[in-house]
Design goal:
The chain has a two-stranded antiparallel ribbon with strand order 1-2. The radius of gyration is 27 Å and the shape is elongated. The protein is mainly alpha-helical. The longest helix has about 60 residues. The protein has 10 helices and 2 strands, in the order αββααααααααα. About 75% of the residues lie in helices and about 5% in strands.
């Protein structure tokens, strides 16, 4: 009889084993999606940044070439008419005061999108690993998330190589208060990731730490979202604006001597530059949306960990917020796709 009971016992546990295998399959699929999207995001943004940097170089060259008074130096000191009766004047100033009716400005192409966006995109990728760990705990409260937590901590530590980013000085015209808030929130986030890594093999301690200190992630992401939005409305379009303006100036100065084909080619480049000037703010808005989605996802996962939920509710929260993370990474990956 006892032998029969022992034979039946494994059969009675079979549904639980099958359910556990299904949960693990879901978790592995979700983790694979997050990791794949992270790789896509990194690869795509590198292509995007390379293309933008080439446009910036073209903008600088076009601006210099638009007037023989300009030299290939940065920043350029230019004079522009501010009075309706201002006489014609060279575009660039090497020294001295501007001519009557003109004002002088120092022109820089502006902060590089790579300098501004790359560290923020790296942070979103790190948040993907963090969210993946929280979702895994929701799916199976006793699961080992040390790999995901370690990946999060490693990526957070790598943010330190973006020294201006961590210092809060990587955006144009950033004031001391904004710089201080960025610096404090990022340092706190990196420290939080390191502390999580020390507890990575004890899921209960990871969960408690997330509930107790996880708001530091909210603070960092909220600060960065506001900054990228402000940058996108201004500095993100500088290079293409300058490029278009320089080409237009060249067209005005030379239209009488250019052939119809040359005028057409130049006009085509001007229209293309005008369109590209709209692209920078649009891409910055995509990054803002991605940051906001990542922020919503990790906050939702943290709230679910802290709540009294049924297993079904926990799994639903895990799936919903991992889907948000993958959408955030998808937005980043689509930066390289022409608008």
């Amino acid at each position: 009889m006892g032998r029969l009971a022992n034979a039946v016992l494994p059969l009675s546990t079979l549904p639980l084993l099958v359910a556990g295998c299904a949960t693990n399959a879901i978790r592995l699929e979700a983790a694979g999606t997050v990791q794949a999207r992270s790789r896509e995001a990194v690869t795509a943004t590198e292509r995007y940044f390379d293309a933008v940097e080439q446009r910036r170089r073209d903008a600088a060259a076009a601006l210099v070439a638009s007037d023989p008074s300009c030299l290939p130096a940065t920043p350029l000191r230019i004079q522009v008419p501010v009075a309706s009766d201002a006489p014609a004047a060279p575009l660039c100033l090497s020294a001295g005061a501007p001519m009557p009716g003109h004002a002088a400005f120092d022109i820089d192409i502006g902060s590089s999108p790579r300098d501004v966006l790359e560290p923020r995109i790296a942070l979103i990728a790190a948040i993907g690993d963090y969210a993946d760990a929280l979702a895994a705990i929701l799916e199976a409260p006793g699961t080992d998330v040390s790999a995901e937590i370690t990946a999060f901590a490693d990526q957070a530590d790598r943010l330190a190589r973006f020294t201006n980013f961590v210092a809060g000085t990587d955006l144009p015209n950033v004031n001391a208060a904004v710089a201080s808030e960025q610096r404090q929130s990022l340092i706190a986030l990196i420290a939080f990731a390191d502390e999580l890594a020390r507890e990575a093999r004890r899921t209960r301690d990871v969960r408690a730490l997330v509930v107790r200190q996880g708001a530091v992630v909210d603070r960092a992401l909220a600060s960065l979202s506001v900054q990228v939005a402000a940058w996108g409305k201004g500095a993100a379009r500088n290079a293409d604006d300058l490029y278009g303006n320089a080409l237009f100036r060249t067209y005005l100065r030379n239209r009488e001597t250019l052939s119809p084909d040359q005028r057409e080619q130049l006009a085509t480049r001007i229209f293309a530059a005008r369109e590209a000037a709209k692209d920078g703010p649009a891409r910055a808005a995509q990054v803002v949306d991605a940051i906001d989605l990542a922020a919503t996802a990790q906050a939702g996962l943290r709230a679910a960990l802290d709540g009294r939920l049924t297993p079904e509710q926990r799994r639903a929260a895990a799936r919903l917020n991992i889907e948000r993370v993958t959408r955030a990474l998808g937005l980043i990956a689509s930066l390289a796709t022409p608008g």
